[in-house]
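Final report, closing paragraph on structural work. Over the funding period we assembled a curated collection of sequence-structure pairs, and we close with a single example.
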Amino acid sequence: MDILSLSSGYGIDSNGFIISDVSMDKIDSRYLPCIEETIDCLQHLFQQQLHSIYLYGSVPRGDAILLKSDLDIIAMFHSKMNTQQLDRLNKLSGELTKKYQPLVRDVGIAVANYDDTFDPANYYENAYLKEICVCVYGEDVGKRFGPYKLTPEIPISFNGDICEVRNRALKRMEAASDKDFKTLSQGFTRKLIRTYYSMVMVRSQIWTTRLHEQSEVVIQYFPEKSAVIDILLYWLEKPPADRDFAYELFQKEGDWACRNFEREVEITY
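Its predicted structure, as stored:
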């Protein structure tokens, strides 16, 4: 991959606080019908429970690619969702994905809970809402948090679950159809890159949510990962065709991340 040489202070203001790279102004108008219908459907299905809705990822960042990018959504509810409600949410996601296939690859709807959000123990997790999300419906709770500096609490909150995610992902891959394997592998590919970046985020003092830029930062600190990063970036575009090779790489790199995450993330600049 080409090295762009991102340097310390990228994505951070003069006081050391994260600069969010998402906004309503950056959203391509072609995505608005899908966003608006998603909001309408969530309001209709969960009128009493719905608190607010957020966008994150490439769409509010302004670099989404038609047909290739996902519409990533977080729906926050006043109370925890039961199994039946989660099934309705998954069904809605599938229906919207099918309807808007000419526009997005997937309409993904993640769930957040209001009480959990305001639990003091989850303060640093809410950097996600503050810095990575745009509120498109309801009260923007992200305004109640931050500003945040790049301290170890941020990467730990974002990607400290890598061992759990690795175990779950590998188990699902073992039983997946070829089609589902491709989807699962791309999801874990993104998780690995973000986790590697989280491990060097603090010492680099570089803030970015773009996977290609995160990959560059990783290689600055782990040059021995260059070949692996090249493979992962390729799989973001074209999912792996060789299941055995992909599974072996995911297992090996997932193990490495699990063993080294806590030690590396605590290294400061």
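The CA atoms of residues 197 and 217 lie 7 Å apart. The two ends are 25 Å apart (CA to CA). We thank the funder for supporting this effort.
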